[in-house]
Amino acid sequence: MVEWAEFQNRKKLLGNYIKEQGIDVFFVFNPYNLFYLTRFFHVSTERPLVYAMTADGKAHILSPALEEGEARKLPVVDSVKGYFEFPGTGDILGDFFASLARDGNIKARADSLSLGRYQDLQKRFQDVGLSDAVEKMRLIKSPYEIGLLKKAAVYANFIVTEGFKIAKPGMTEMELLSIIEQKTISKMVQELDEIIYVPGGPAGGLVPSGDRTALPHALPSARIINQGENMILSCGANVEGYRIECERTFFLGQPSARHREAFLLMAQAQKMAVSLMKPGAGCRDIDNTVLDFIRDKGYSDALKHRVGHGKGLEEHEAPWIESGDPTALAPGMVVSAEPGLYIDGFAGFRHSDTVLITETGNELLSSVTRELEELIY
């Protein structure tokens, strides 16, 4: 059941922010931010769909006709202005902006702006700029959000453990992914009241095998899985828009000495990352500590990415566990811990866990084994 009080509270918080900042109209173009404020997800296309909050705390949506009916059902939206198609014969966005710029409104802020939209707003407001207010609201997950993430974790854990059972030499990567996706989605349909489709679907991921594991984002292929090589199940699940990831490197048959060495270093670095994720810890400090540990072991050339990133409505969102992000972790933040090693032409090694920062430390939301001897099939 939808807890609309949660969305009413978000609306109130944004209204308080724009009042404190003296903002006349706050525009939301990012579909994830719009979902966060309204529980309305749409696939962003060339047709503008815009959320705007005015200084009186009222929420307004501009919507194409094909989305308008759903938008009008939202209890946290006060008015919906529909239009038939884009680009249309008039100035769809300009007219919507003008309708909100009346009565002396001069200060507008937006969560994101293209050059064209910025220029359109400048024609109607004296003071136009960007604001990350909604993104900052999203940083700390509420009990409601944490509950959804924990539900998603059940299915992220399930899809990975099913992958261990089903992967066999002679299968293709695409065959494996198709089977575990369908098993997981069937389980979700049976057990959940509702599944909201968002890009990426309710459950799925990447399943590279052999030397393709050295490509961190290797898309599923028709490559045949072979005995004696490793795979990475880079999977996740999504419940009511909230995403969890669980990734494990495992082996079909006994790993070679070279496989073992790289795997054990990756696993040690990943456990180190998790142990450092606690209130007050700096994102940049975690990244530097873990990646320097790997470099000191002689694997600098095997590093291709940061230690982690935030999780929530988006697959990747703030905060960033990376040397350029000074953010200090705080209770309620949810992040991934996933340092990886990638040896070109040989293999890649990565575990990822989704980590909830708590008042006293952290809690792993993903819970599949990380131990080498338990990951040999």
TrEMBL record:
Creatinase N-terminal domain span:
12-140
InterPro entries to which the protein is assigned, alphabetical:
Creatin/AminoP/Spt16_N, Creatinase/aminopeptidase-like, Creatinase_N, Pept_M24, Peptidase_M24B
| Domain of life the protein comes from | Bacteria
Q: Where is the Peptidase M24 domain?
A: 149-359
Gene3D superfamilies xrefs: Creatinase/methionine aminopeptidase superfamily, Creatinase/prolidase N-terminal domain
| Name of the protein in question | Xaa-Pro dipeptidase
Query: Which lineage do the record's taxonomy fields give for this organism?
Result: Bacteria, Pseudomonadati, Spirochaetota, Spirochaetia, Spirochaetales
